[in-house]
Amino acid sequence: MSLPQPLRGVITAMITPLTRKGTLDGRGLERLVEHLISAGVHGLFILGTTGEGPALPRSLQSDVIKATCQQVGGRVPVIVGVTETVLEEAVELTAKAKELGAQAAVTSAPYYYPASQAELLTYLEELAAAAPLPVFLYNAPSNTHHRFDPATVRSAARFPNIVGLKDSGCDMIYFHCVRESLRDRPDFTLLVGPEELMAEAVLLGGHGGMCAGSNIWPRLYVDLYNAAAACDLDAVRRLQSTVMRLSTTVYRVDARESSLLRGMKCAVAELGICDDGMMPPFEPFDDAERARIREYLGELGWIHTP
Amino acid sequence: MSLPQPLRGVITAMITPLTRKGTLDGRGLERLVEHLISAGVHGLFILGTTGEGPALPRSLQSDVIKATCQQVGGRVPVIVGVTETVLEEAVELTAKAKELGAQAAVTSAPYYYPASQAELLTYLEELAAAAPLPVFLYNAPSNTHHRFDPATVRSAARFPNIVGLKDSGCDMIYFHCVRESLRDRPDFTLLVGPEELMAEAVLLGGHGGMCAGSNIWPRLYVDLYNAAAACDLDAVRRLQSTVMRLSTTVYRVDARESSLLRGMKCAVAELGICDDGMMPPFEPFDDAERARIREYLGELGWIHTP
Amino acid sequence: MSLPQPLRGVITAMITPLTRKGTLDGRGLERLVEHLISAGVHGLFILGTTGEGPALPRSLQSDVIKATCQQVGGRVPVIVGVTETVLEEAVELTAKAKELGAQAAVTSAPYYYPASQAELLTYLEELAAAAPLPVFLYNAPSNTHHRFDPATVRSAARFPNIVGLKDSGCDMIYFHCVRESLRDRPDFTLLVGPEELMAEAVLLGGHGGMCAGSNIWPRLYVDLYNAAAACDLDAVRRLQSTVMRLSTTVYRVDARESSLLRGMKCAVAELGICDDGMMPPFEPFDDAERARIREYLGELGWIHTP
Amino acid sequence: MSLPQPLRGVITAMITPLTRKGTLDGRGLERLVEHLISAGVHGLFILGTTGEGPALPRSLQSDVIKATCQQVGGRVPVIVGVTETVLEEAVELTAKAKELGAQAAVTSAPYYYPASQAELLTYLEELAAAAPLPVFLYNAPSNTHHRFDPATVRSAARFPNIVGLKDSGCDMIYFHCVRESLRDRPDFTLLVGPEELMAEAVLLGGHGGMCAGSNIWPRLYVDLYNAAAACDLDAVRRLQSTVMRLSTTVYRVDARESSLLRGMKCAVAELGICDDGMMPPFEPFDDAERARIREYLGELGWIHTP
Question: With a threshold of 0.95, does the pTM exceed it?
Answer without folding.
Answer: yes
